[in-house]
From TrEMBL:
Keywords: DNA-binding, Transcription, Transcription regulation. This is GyrI-like domain-containing protein. Residues 8-106 form the HTH araC/xylS-type domain. PROSITE patterns: HTH_ARAC_FAMILY_1, HTH_ARAC_FAMILY_2. The keyword ATP-binding does not apply. It comes from the Bacteria. It holds the Pfam family HTH_18. Coiled coil: none annotated.
Length: 287
């Protein structure tokens, strides 16, 4: 249950410091996690980023003040982190579907996002297929792209676009020709998160021991570690998000392992990811 308690402690910290300019690093420290790993875990369990959660909660509180106090709209905007009334109004309308002025007049309905409570399912009704493996460090080779993790960022949509782009351009075939190692198949992995500009680096790759890397490709060294390898069968878009949620809401709370902080891997071994028999593995580094 340590992961649940750690996440809940981080949420309590966010709630206590909503009016302050806190960073993901500050929040992740409450859970004793790296910024990247905390952000990744939070998104898997809640389907929103840390930044979006903070925005929703601040705008919920701001709406409450608009309707229950006589404070000026400009003062409320500044209080909840907006430098101009225009930026506050734009964000307010995006969440609530009406302007701050209309909210004050009681026109229309508001959207209330309440404080999060992390809950887990420890029943284990659905069996999880996995095995464990210890490996020395190994190299993956592929293409990477940076994504801005702002409030408009749709991770699933953007990563699917990236994969489609690589497939149409012939890069996937090029990578498969370089594939030699214990992992036979394509790998998708978020290899870094940069807090200073709120960007993540995502890589489509294969395991390859080749020393000569073709132009346009990058190599990344995965550290020596113990891996828990979970298996799933079915259309990737259906089974992978479900399996990630199971890993964090059922497997981790039921076991004594922690995520090591190294990148996790999604391994695709079937040529047709939409097939009902498509095989996918999720490799999670643990300690």
């Amino acid at each position: 249950m340590a992961i649940v308690e750690a996440l809940q402690k981080a949420i309590e910290y966010m709630e206590a410091h909503l009016l302050e300019d806190i960073t993901i690093k500050d929040i992740a420290a409450q859970a004793h996690m790296s910024s990247y790993h905390f952000q990744r875990t939070f998104v898997i369990l809640t389907d929103i980023t840390v930044g979006e959660y903070l925005r929703r909660r601040r705008l919920t509180k701001a709406a409450h003040e608009l309707c229950n106090t006589n404070a000026k709209i400009i003062d409320i905007a500044y209080k909840y982190g907006y430098q101009t009334p225009e930026s506050f109004s734009k964000a307010f309308q995006r969440q609530h579907g009406l302007t701050p002025s209309d909210a004050r007049k009681g026109i229309g309905n508001l959207q209330s996002y309440n404080r999060l409570t992390i809950q887990v399912n420890l029943k284990g009704v659905e069996p999880m297929k996995y095995h464990m493996m210890e490996r020395d460090d190994f190299q993956i080779v592929g293409v990477k792209e940076s994504f801005e993790c702002n409030e408009t960022f749709d991770q699933s949509k953007e990563i699917n676009r990236f994969w489609s782009q690589l497939g149409q351009g012939g890069t996937i075939d090029q990578l498969l020709r370089l594939n030699h190692g214990e992992i036979a198949g394509l790998i998708g992995a978020t290899i870094a998160y940069h807090e200073e500009n709120d960007q993540m680096e995502y890589m489509v790759a294969v395991e390859s021991s080749s020393g000569d890397i073709p132009d346009g490709l990058f190599k990344y060294e995965l550290p020596s570690t113990k891996w828990v390898i979970f298996e799933a069968a079915g259309p990737v878009m259906d089974v992978v998000p479900k399996l990630w949620k199971q890993i964090y809401s059922e497997w981790f709370p039921s076991n004594d392992y922690e995520h090591s902080g190294a990148p996790s891997l999604e391994v695709y071994t079937s040529p047709d990811p939409t097939s009902s028999t498509a095989k996918t593995e999720i490799w999670v580094p643990v300690k």
